[in-house]
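<context>
A single protein, sequence plus fold
<sample>
Here is the protein in question:
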Amino acid sequence: MSTRLQIIATRQAQTRVRDALFAAFVVLATVISISSVGTAANAASSQPTHALALEAAR
């Protein structure tokens, strides 16, 4: 039979695992977000190829 302290310890261990998984998903979402913002910033700062073609045609 489990004692009250064993039950509390088991629940606490399960909570730690859940918290660690949550933290991992937050880190993953942060990395994806930073990567997406970097890609968008890079795309916004470069000239489109059709703009270069129009300048060359002048």
Remarks:
- The chain has one domain: 4-57.
- Residues 4-57 form one domain.
- Helices lie at 4-45, 49-57.
- The two ends are 87 Å apart (CA to CA).
